[in-house]
Design goal:
alpha+beta, about 15% helix
Length: about 80
């Protein structure tokens, strides 16, 4: 895939946070090892309040190794 690991993480983090949210802060931690074309993305909501959504994500290689992980805080529109 031609998209950077950070861009891939941002995409899955935004999707996990849901519509009507905007990215406020994002942190990326890179794993070791070779970059792979096929990565499996997993993202989940860690916690949500009335105005903020805290999300986490991982990108894993086919061998199960961690390519990158990320966390983000998204704000809800109108909050």
């Amino acid at each position: 895939m031609d998209t950077s690991l950070a861009a891939q993480l941002e995409s899955v983090l935004r999707k996990a946070a849901g519509e009507g949210t905007s990215l406020t802060s994002m942190t990326v931690d890179y794993g070791s090892g070779e970059l792979a074309a096929d990565l499996e993305a997993k993202a989940w909501v860690e916690r949500a309040t009335r105005s903020l959504v805290f999300v986490q994500a991982e990108l894993r290689r086919a061998d199960g190794g961690l390519a990158a992980s990320g966390s983000a805080i998204c704000s809800r529109a109108g909050a």
